[in-house]
């Protein structure tokens, strides 16, 4: 039999799979394509794939037979059972050292499980986040691979060739072990939720407090896109606000204000709660979507629950208002990314993953939905210090947030007095003020816990005494009625 020609196999000929195959073929690789509904293979071969270095396979056997060793097979199918089904079907045809890469939006615990199961069979499993949608897949996505590191030398060249580039550097590098690649993609999606929510709050304030038209708001976003907020999401927001329906009015104002979600933001927020990390902005972004979806209740509430009317002279200086708003958006975004990296850092510790922080920032720099100029600064910060405890401790970001603070506070105060919700702006500022507080009111909270549940507390070192020894769990009989037994197992 002739030597196989295929550099990579790809299963799943929907939007992502087809485009990634065409991208790899453009870079000189021969790709073997397969799909559950086999007629889609023929359709693809007769149309988009015609004349390119793409081989259509009509069975798993044919796919595998056409691949060079070690075989590299990418799955781009619906996350969940479809991934397990294809792994099952592939296994009888694979040999030790072959590589399966799941490029779908799988939840990282599934990737952890698949990595372990396949390790036992000598197959290298990689879970790779892929971001950038259809266009990214076709012309350069952000790729976040993690899992069996033995696979990396065999896939590095192809992955880095087809990925997006930022200042000539590929937006693809090895993330870490097991489900780390999909974990980082999950946090990316959570941050995407946060960025989108922040932008919508800025739009809402300009519209409802500033009285700006959509075109004027579009112009503000266009201006912001030339500065520190330069990013894909600000750019598309500019274009959306300038887009008119057939009747010449902005289409965006006709869209039902009830947000959907597929769950990756929720996964991030749940994981943050599990790991005890205050990733408040992503949490608020998820809840803001939930609140928006209560449309009929909100219509009722609007006629029952009072609040301030927006004052006509709320804004004294229009330019100052816009500048303050830009600072509020910038500062809140810094907090969101700082929180996202706090979560990634904690996940590294909890799951015992050595994570490549500078590479993570670089991977998000281009090709993906959260791509922005701002991520170049985050990459720089983590390159200077890969173990950076918090992004806010890097001088660039300390200075940036210091400078933005006044506009940030003024914007939130203005929105609050005018009755406009700013969940993401506000939670970011509350986090900032909490994080920079040497002393928080948790002393009182600990006292309450000890009062009602004998949960004990510890004393500040400077207040330690014979009765209140340092470093010990202390219970006080606050009422003189309870006993002296403390709760050792019950955690409120
Ligand atoms: P879809 O998520 O719509 O999946 C379609 C593919 O899954 C088809 O090949 C389909 O085969 C196959 N499939 C399904 Br559906 N159920 C199956 C089953 N039970 N067994 C085997 N195959 C099954 O495609 P997509 O939008 O291209 O996304 C692919 C992956 O990439 C997903 O995990 C997605 O979350 C992720 N992703 C998507 C985007 C995006 O912008 N769309 C971005 C980043 C990541 P069939 O043709 O026989 O029905």
UniProtKB/TrEMBL annotation:
InterPro entries hit by this protein: 6-PGluconate_DH-like_C_sf, 6PGD_dom2, 6PGDH_C, 6PGDH_Gnd/GntZ, 6PGDH_NADP-bd, 6PGdom_BS, NAD(P)-bd_dom_sf, Pgluconate_DH
Binding site for NADP(+): 12-17, 35-37, 77-79, 105
Pathway as given in its UniProt record: Carbohydrate degradation; pentose phosphate pathway; D-ribulose 5-phosphate from D-glucose 6-phosphate (oxidative stage): step 3/3
Amino-acid positions noted as binding substrate in the UniProt annotation, renumbered to this chain: 105, 131-133, 188-189, 193, 262, 289, 449, 455
Keywords recorded for this protein, A-Z: Gluconate utilization, NADP, Oxidoreductase, Pentose shunt
A molecular function (GO) term: NADP binding
Protein's recorded name: 6-phosphogluconate dehydrogenase, decarboxylating
Organism annotation: Lachancea thermotolerans (strain ATCC 56472 / CBS 6340 / NRRL Y-8284) (Yeast)
Similarity comment text for this entry: Belongs to the 6-phosphogluconate dehydrogenase family.
């Amino acid at each position: 039999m002739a030597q196989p020609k295929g550099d990579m196999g790809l299963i799943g000929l929907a939007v992502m799979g087809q485009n990634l195959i065409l991208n790899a073929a453009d870079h000189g690789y021969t790709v073997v394509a397969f799909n559950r509904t086999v007629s889609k293979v023929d359709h693809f071969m007769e149309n988009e794939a015609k004349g390119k270095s793409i081989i259509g396979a009509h069975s798993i056997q044919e796919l595998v037979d056409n691949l060079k060793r070690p075989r590299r097979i990418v799955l781009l199918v619906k996350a969940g059972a479809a991934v397990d089904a294809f792994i099952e079907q592939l296994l009888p045809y694979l040999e030790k050292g072959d590589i399966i890469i799941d490029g779908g939006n799988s939840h990282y615990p599934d990737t952890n499980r698949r990595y372990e199961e396949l390790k036992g069979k000598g197959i290298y499993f990689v879970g790779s986040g892929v971001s950038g949608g259809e266009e990214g897949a076709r012309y350069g996505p952000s790729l976040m691979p993690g899992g069996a590191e033995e696979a990396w030398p065999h896939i590095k060249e192809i992955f880095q060739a087809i990925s997006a580039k930022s200042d000539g550097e590929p937006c693809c590098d090895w993330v870490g072990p097991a489900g780390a690649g999909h974990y980082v993609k999950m946090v990316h999606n959570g941050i995407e939720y946060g960025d989108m929510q922040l932008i919508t709050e800025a739009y809402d304030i300009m519209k409802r407090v500033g009285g700006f038209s959509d075109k004027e708001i579009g112009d503000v976003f266009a201006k912001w896109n030339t500065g520190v907020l330069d990013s894909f999401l600000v750019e598309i927001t500019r274009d959306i606000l300038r887009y008119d329906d057939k009747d010449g009015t902005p289409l965006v104002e006709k869209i039902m204000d009830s947000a959907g979600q597929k769950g990756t933001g929720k996964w991030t927020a749940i994981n943050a709660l599990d790991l005890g990390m205050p990733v408040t902005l992503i949490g608020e972004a998820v809840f803001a979507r939930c609140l928006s979806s209560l449309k009929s209740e909100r219509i009722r509430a609007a006629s029952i629950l009072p609040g301030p009317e927006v004052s006509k002279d709320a804004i004294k200086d229009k330019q100052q208002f816009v500048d303050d708003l830009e600072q509020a958006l910038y500062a809140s975004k810094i907090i969101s990314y700082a929180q996202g990296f706090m979560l990634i850092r904690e996940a590294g510790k909890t799951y015992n993953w050595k994570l490549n922080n500078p590479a993570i920032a670089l991977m998000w720099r281009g090709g993906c939905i959260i791509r922005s100029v701002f991520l170049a600064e985050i990459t720089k910060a983590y390159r200077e210090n890969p173990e950076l405890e918090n992004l806010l401790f890097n001088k660039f970001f300390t200075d940036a947030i210091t400078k933005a603070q006044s506009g940030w506070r003024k914007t939130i105060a203005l929105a609050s007095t005018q009755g406009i919700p700013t969940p993401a702006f506000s939670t970011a500022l509350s986090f900032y003020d909490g994080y920079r507080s040497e002393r928080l009111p948790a002393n009182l909270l600990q006292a309450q816990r000890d009062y009602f549940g004998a949960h004990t507390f510890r004393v500040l070192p400077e207040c330690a005494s014979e009765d209140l020894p340092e470093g010990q769990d202390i219970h006080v009989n606050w009422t003189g009625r309870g006993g002296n037994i403390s709760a050792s197992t019950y955690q409120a």
